[in-house]
Amino acid sequence: MLLKEKLKDMLKDNWKSFVSLFVGAVLVVLGIFRGEVMVVLGKATRICMECIGIG
Fold it and tell me: For the packed helices 15-33 and 2-13, what is the interaxial angle rounded to 10 degrees?
């Protein structure tokens, strides 16, 4: 019973954090399904190459 009450209090205090975490996870999954992984990886590679002076 104590664990249930503790979980209830935690949810009541931190519900915004849980909602943000859930929305973030949903957006990551949507990005994966849309094929954005390769776009992000390509941009990161170009930025990295420019930082070290190759690209």
Answer: 70
